[in-house]
Every structure is written in structure tokens, then in C-alpha cells.
Amino acid sequence: MLVVGAGLAGQRAALAAVEARRDVAIISKLHPLRSHSGAAQGGINAAVGKEDSVDTHIYDTVKGSDYLGDQDAIEFFCREAGPTVVEMEHYGTIFSRAEDGSLARRPFGGQGFPRTIYAADRTGLALLQALWERLGTEHFTLYQEWDLTNIVVREGRVQGIVAFDRRTGQFEGIAAKSVVVATGPAGRIYGRTTNAHTCTGDGVAAAYDAGALLKDLEFVQFHPTALLESGILITEGARGEGGILKNVLGERFMGKYAPHVLDLASRDVVSRAIVTEVREGRGFPGNFVHLELMHLGKERIETRLQEICDFCRNFAGVDPVVNPIPIFPAQHYMMGGVGTNIRGETNIAGL
């Protein structure tokens, strides 16, 4: 089996195949620990506490999709989320802890219960490191700094791929009975995105060229809080910790758009609200609004939002302990992509 992409999804697929005693290879355009999964910040949702339930997680997710989500897939996802978090903890992920030693949880947008498990504001990096260490105990082949160019299909079945080896400058063929596409998003087609420069949609394009069906490409998520100039993500965890959004008039404007949940409305609601404020003249000169954290206090900000502090100070010249953060929405996530069933199978055998 050949896995294209070495982020969290690709590594976990490879681990499952290795555990099933398959001959596994991974190709990645960069070192696995540089995969874009490492940029995830605020946390992952899972119903793991006694006060929470999978059913309420399912409901919140369906509602958050404006009832457009695939409900069978949502149910599967929510039921697997808790065991996956526990599994990752057993692999050594250093999650943040509550005072009683249990997994710490913070509120997140669109959730009716604080169910977001996190590792400060470096959750993706913590998960990626733990999974890579676990996968490193197994035998597999890694093609590092290889770029996927084509998925080879003959007589309706996958036969392997063609990839470009950047170190030698040669195109190479790799035969495989099955190929897993885990190449991540295509955010770099947008001028303003939180995605890394490696997120160019290679896997989706190659699958389409090979005859795979694509699905739901119109569903593109915009994250409401990205640094104004660079588009660097400012985690939703900042608002989960109590951060608030204000316009040029000093108003906490989310009360007009989501009076019950305010700044923790779902991302599409908050993004539209920010754009509306700016378009109607209530943004700051330069077309942005402020995210304020100052009231949380220095210790809480620097403990729970360490990476955000670094990003703001280094890339925006702003200290969030004493000054508001200038933010505006940016493209963040692609819900659509290669069409699959709930088992991840496409219309092409072996893909």
C-alpha cells in the first residue's frame, strides 16, 4: 500500500496498514514533522467527559453544518473521536490537563459543550510528534521530498503513481496495489489563507486526472481570525479562553449576530459578521477588527496561548498581553475533495 502525504491522516493510515501486516510506503513532499497537520492550534472535539455525550456531539456537528453535512459520516466521525483521542494519549500526546488530572477541555465555536481537547495552542504539533514516534517503531518505506504528479490507473484499477524526486530531479514510478490520498488542502489557490505554501491540492488534482469523482468543492471554510498582513491563523482557542471581538466603535459586535453564543458562534457566522462590520464602515482603517485578549491576564495568555503570543510579536509587532490583535477572515479548510464512501473508497478500485 502506498500512502501519499505524511500528515496525521496519512501517518494513521500507514500505521493501520502496517499493523495489518501490509507492505507500506509513504511519499511526502517534505519531512513528515513539517506536514501542515502541525499547524493546527486550538484543539480537537471529542465527547470524552462524563457530562458530555456522543449524541450531543453529533447534534452540534449536524447543526453546525446547517444540516447540509452527511449525517452518516458525522455519526461515524463523532463516535470515533473519543477513542481516537484516548489512543493518541496512549501514544504519548501531551494534552493539557485540568486540575484533577483529566484531559482539559475548552469551549469552541458551534459547540454546545466545552469538548475541545487541546495541547496549549500547539495541538496539531503535539499529535503529529506522538504519532510519528509511534509509526517510527514500525517498518515502512519513506520517500521524502517526492511530489505526486500522476496516479496510474489501468483497466479501472490503480497500479501505482508517478512522482518527482526533488533531490535527483527525476520522475519515478512506484507500483502499488492500493493508493491512499492524504495530501491535505488546496488553500494556496486563495490569495489570503492560513494554509502553508505546500497546500496546493496535488492529491485532489491527481485523483481527478485519474478519473476519480470530486465532491462538495463549493464548501470552503473561512476562519474568522487570521493576522491581518500575513494570514497566520489565530486559533479559535483564543476566543475559547475568553477573547472578544470589537469594532472601531469599541462594540462587542457579535451580540448582534449571535446573541446567545457571541464570539463562539460557528466560524461561518463569525466570518460573515466581521466582513459585514468592515463593509458597513465599522472596521478599523485598513479593513480589520480587533481580537482582545488583554483582560485574560499575562499568565493565562502566555501559558495557554504561547504560540499566538509568538506569532503576534514576531509577525505583527503586537503584544497580545497589552494590545488588541488586528484580524480578518482567511481561507482555512476545504470540506470537499475526492468523493468517497464512509470507508474512504473512491469510484476507482484501489484508490
UniProtKB/TrEMBL annotation:
SUPFAM superfamilies: FAD/NAD(P)-binding domain (SSF51905), Succinate dehydrogenase/fumarate reductase flavoprotein, catalytic domain (SSF56425)
Keyword Cell membrane applies: no
Keywords attached to this entry: Flavoprotein, Oxidoreductase
GO terms under biological process: anaerobic respiration
One Gene Ontology term of the molecular function aspect: succinate dehydrogenase activity
The keyword Transferase appears for this protein: no
A GO CC term assigned to this protein in UniProt: plasma membrane
Domain FAD-dependent oxidoreductase 2 FAD-binding: from-to ranges: 2-351
This protein's name: Succinate dehydrogenase/fumarate reductase flavoprotein subunit
Top-level taxonomy: unclassified sequences, metagenomes, ecological metagenomes
